[in-house]
Specification:
This protein is α/β, with parallel strands linked by helices. Helix content is 35%, strand content 24%.
Length: 178
């Protein structure tokens, strides 16, 4: 990011610290565990308010968003922020990325050695990469979910469940008032 803006990485880090302090940006830390794979140790960064993101990108109508290449990243940020806002006390969150392209959008670790691998997909018919399943094995995932834009719950290969955002938030204890 620093190179593209022609500023040093320390300046970018300082800017991100300020935006994080003002709750405008959320950093998802890298998974802290160890594995034989080379992991990316930089955090994922999201603008927390997707409405603000859309305004900054001059997206004012839903039709403009759905045809925009940013729709997937926007959905991922929206879902991530909702999950982390309702994440019960005692749970930790991170992201998993290897230098070979394996990725898990959210790793949620909770009481009783629970480890949830969560992939976020905008598609109504989500398909997972091999990298998600390999990454899930690396972190010792006890549950695997794909939070997608639909409302149905259904099984996917390799003991993974597709689930809508509202139902996933209920799993976390977000209640049923949605």
């Amino acid at each position: 990011m620093g190179r593209s803006l022609e500023v040093s990485h320390t300046t970018i880090s300082s800017y991100l610290d300020t935006l994080t302090d003002f709750y405008m940006v959320r950093r998802i830390p890298p998974w802290p565990g160890s594995t034989k794979k080379r992991l990316v140790k930089s955090p994922k960064v999201f603008i927390r308010d997707t409405g603000l993101l859309h305004r900054l990108l001059n997206i004012s109508q839903p039709e403009d968003l759905f045809g925009n290449p940013v729709v997937g990243a926007s959905w991922e940020g929206f879902v991530t922020e909702n999950i982390l806002t309702l994440l019960p006390e005692g749970w930790q969150y991170s992201c998993y990325r290897s230098q070979t392209g394996m990725e898990i959008d959210l790793v949620l670790e909770g009481p009783g050695k629970q480890v949830w691998a969560v992939e976020i997909k905008r598609s109504s018919a989500p398909v997972l990469s091999r990298g998600f399943h390999k990454g899930s094995a690396d972190i010792g995932a006890t549950r695997k979910y794909v939070v997608y834009a639909g409302q149905e719950r259904f099984p996917l290969p390799e003991r993974t469940e597709a689930i809508g955002l509202v139902d996933f938030l209920k799993l976390l204890g977000g209640g049923s008032d949605f």
